[in-house]
């Protein structure tokens, strides 16, 4: 299995909380290239899963997955990372290592596309993941194409 491409959810969704349809062809290319798509998002501080919160998170994930599938792509997973000051770095690294193990790839073969100057960028900069900070959604298609052609 090829290594996944991680994309920050913040780059995927518009103000209405939906995937911009212009991104769907790029996501379909990931599927055609057999590159798993894993969305990454910040787990809110103090988030304690309750039935309604879990249902809401699951519903959003299902909506994203359905949209990506309709566009010819495939969502493999959503990974929520903790950014709390009280969460040790090793817990976040364990989540990334588990992800790498799932795909039987070292961390340095995993690509992450994240917004510039974001907490996600800061979090991933001190890992072995290849991080590609971009200025916005308009650069996402180009970055995906660049990764697929390398």
Written account of the structure:
The structure is a single chain. With 150 residues, the chain is α/β, with parallel strands linked by helices. The protein has one domain (5-149): Rossmann fold (3-Layer(aba) Sandwich). It is 43% helix and 19% strand. It has helices at 9-12, 24-32, 51-70, 89-102, 119-125, 140-149, and strands at 5-8, 37-43, 75-82, 111-115, 130-134. The protein has a five-stranded parallel β-sheet, sandwiched between helices. Helix 2 (24-32) packs parallel to helix 6.
Question: How would you briefly describe this protein structure?
Answer:
The protein is α/β, with parallel strands linked by helices. The protein has helices at residues 9-12, 24-32, 51-70, 89-102, 119-125, 140-149, and strands at residues 5-8, 37-43, 75-82, 111-115, 130-134.
Helix content: 40-55%
**In CATH terms, what is the fold-level topology?**
Rossmann fold
Could you state the oligomeric state of the chains shown? single chain
Radius of gyration: 15 Å
Give the overall average pLDDT. 87
Return residue spans where pLDDT drops below 50 for at least 5 consecutive residues.
none
**How many strands appear in the DSSP assignment?**
5
Jot down its keywords:
150 residues; globular; 43% helix; alpha/beta; Rossmann fold
